[in-house]
Amino acid sequence: MVIKVFLASSSGSTAIKKKQQDVVGFLEALKVDYAQLDIACNEENRMWMRQNVPEEKKPANGIPLPPQIFNEESYCGDYDTFFDAKEDNLVYSFLGLPPPPGSKEAVQADKADIVENGTHAEETNAEGNLDDSIEVPVEERNGDAHSKEELAQAADEEDEGEGGEEEEGEVAEGETADDEATEEETAGDEAPAEEEEAVEETDEVTEDTQAHAEEEEEQEEEELRQLEEEEEAEVQEEEEEDLEETQEEEAE
């Protein structure tokens, strides 16, 4: 199975270039075999990509933007779905590939299988039954493992220690109550100031984050708008060329 990544080598959008680099760089880091198919210099690649992206995955104008990812003829997704899979450690599932042993995704799959089956893999034998060869301590197999002498000795020790423990417990409880009261008073004085500082810091971080996110979103929307205009201009130019050729043929 070959992973196909449809890219635009001459895209004027920095946002699209960055997304393409992210996808390619991550696939190379995972050592996944893939093929880059350029839609900017190859009209067949462009048409194949547009025709094979599912309708429900296309944007409102019907023109899907790169990068678009396929496993042979099967559609995997665009950059956004790829990014979500990467965040969830599910890239191999996204690509339709089995995760290599020892990878985070393989470990997650093993854990999910353990939870689903209700038993650990190392506790079962080849037939899927619990392995009787696992040794169980004698104390766990026999509820009466302790001898009568040990039980009697433990009971005597408990009786001897009860008198002293009661007195010590009363003194300790009084000291603990005083300490707790002092801590509560101190915490009551410090809490309002800490809460005010935390609220101020949170508000500042939230405002900075929102402003930065809005700037990035505006920039990306502008770049995508420019690319869509370029795409539409190319389509219109192709239609005009086809019309001119038809007119020439009719004139001949």
TrEMBL record:
<feature type="compositionally biased region" description="Acidic residues">
    <location>
        <begin position="214"/>
        <end position="252"/>
    </location>
</feature>
<protein>
    <submittedName>
        <fullName>SH3 domain binding glutamate rich protein like</fullName>
    </submittedName>
</protein>
<comment type="similarity">
    <text>Belongs to the SH3BGR family.</text>
</comment>
<dbReference type="InterPro" id="IPR036249">
    <property type="entry name" value="Thioredoxin-like_sf"/>
</dbReference>
<dbReference type="GO" id="GO:0005737">
    <property type="term" value="C:cytoplasm"/>
</dbReference>
<dbReference type="InterPro" id="IPR051033">
    <property type="entry name" value="SH3BGR"/>
</dbReference>
<dbReference type="Pfam" id="PF04908">
    <property type="entry name" value="SH3BGR"/>
</dbReference>
<feature type="compositionally biased region" description="Basic and acidic residues">
    <location>
        <begin position="141"/>
        <end position="151"/>
    </location>
</feature>
<feature type="compositionally biased region" description="Acidic residues">
    <location>
        <begin position="155"/>
        <end position="207"/>
    </location>
</feature>
<feature type="region of interest" description="Disordered">
    <location>
        <begin position="141"/>
        <end position="252"/>
    </location>
</feature>
<dbReference type="InterPro" id="IPR006993">
    <property type="entry name" value="Glut_rich_SH3-bd"/>
</dbReference>
